[in-house]
Design a protein that fits this description.
Elements: H1 6-26, H2 32-49, H3 53-69, H4 74-89
Helix pairs in contact: 3-4
Length: about 110
């Protein structure tokens, strides 16, 4: 009986994914998550800056409803969204990605 080709396919897929991620990093191309984080930060900061609490509350409920539709628990989703907003209100900034910094040696 021959061995199943599935583990090999999984290994090949993992290797291809690793290669793709390395290629994207070398090209300095932001990931989908990078874009989402920047967008979220910008949106929350903008709403807070313009004192639009009602808009922020509506936005939060929309996000929570969408997370629940994806299978997340409502209270946990609401807690996570509120936690992010509190961090931004308290001046939290993105963590710098040192590997993206340009070298000054050019």
């Amino acid at each position: 009986m021959s061995a199943s080709p599935r583990p090999r396919r999984r290994t090949e897929a993992a290797a291809q994914q690793l290669h793709y991620r390395q290629q994207q990093k070398a090209l300095r191309k932001p990931s989908r998550d990078d874009v989402a984080r920047v967008t979220l930060h910008w949106l929350i900061q903008r709403i807070l800056k313009h004192d639009k609490e009602g808009e922020l509350a509506r936005w939060c409920e929309t996000i929570v409803r969408r997370l629940v539709r994806q299978g997340f628990e409502r209270d946990a989703a609401r807690s996570r969204v509120n936690q992010l907003i509190e961090r931004y209100e308290n001046g939290w900034r993105f963590q710098r990605k040192p590997h993206l910094a340009h070298d000054d040696d050019d």
